[in-house]
Amino acid sequence: MLTRRGFVRTLGALMLSGVASGAYAVGIEPVGRPRVVRYNLVPNKWPVGLKLRLVILADLHACRPWMSPRRIGDICAQANALDGDMILLLGDFLSGMRMGGNRVTSDEWAGELARLAAPLGVHAVMGNHDWIDDPDAMISGMGPTIVHKALASINVPIYENQASRFEKDGKGFWLAGLADQIGPREGLDDLPGTLAQVTDEAPVILMAHEPDVFPTVPERVSVTLSGHTHGGQIRLFGYSPIVPSRYHNRYAYGHVVEDDRNLIVSGGLGCSIAPIRFGSPPEIVVVELG
After folding, report:
1. Which of 36, 95, 108, 183 has minimal CB crowding within 10 Å?
2. ω into 157 cis (within 30 of 0)
């Protein structure tokens, strides 16, 4: 039988646990050194002898104090040390924060991203907050946005319904990227038009900020790489109660295989709306292909 004293002790313990969990979710997990999450896969029809290492940074959401210029610089140094053939930036460079925080200018965050280097280059797509948090671009409904200008200043190409061919060790592959699927209006992305630019049988790697396009991605694409969801920002026992996707937990996080098609969703680095992460720590993703 639970005595009054026992009840008070239990209640006190629960309250302390709640306070500790809240402090961790706001003050520790969101600002910790990103973990490195690795995926190794050989997609169907992947060329023998082609080995690629892709280092992926998603959802920076530059904002003091949680994603300061200094922290972005540290993340870039960590990413460079992973020796990727390519570094891919999957969108949402702007803050997106609605609960506190101070602005980091585009010159500041772009100056830190300029440190990134890889043999086959650094490549990017836009995220929804790169439109939504750029009032002038939202009013005009077109670019160049703050992010377009910032990345152009450091010579990082943005793929908006574009595909480019690369080679490594004499083997060809395509890198494709979609325009954002949400802002400034739905319909900026054009998957058929993007894939129509692929002119041979070399494998295709697709960057798409939001994973919701995946059901329409054909088998022709070896792997789709996305961010956007932050793993839900709060993730308990592999489940996220809130996911910014019409498919909810289906594409919330990790390596998803459907009909022999591969999707990898990064948990990302920053926070959106609220500076909270719990069970979904910041991460840099490394994808080893071949």
Report:
1. 36
2. no
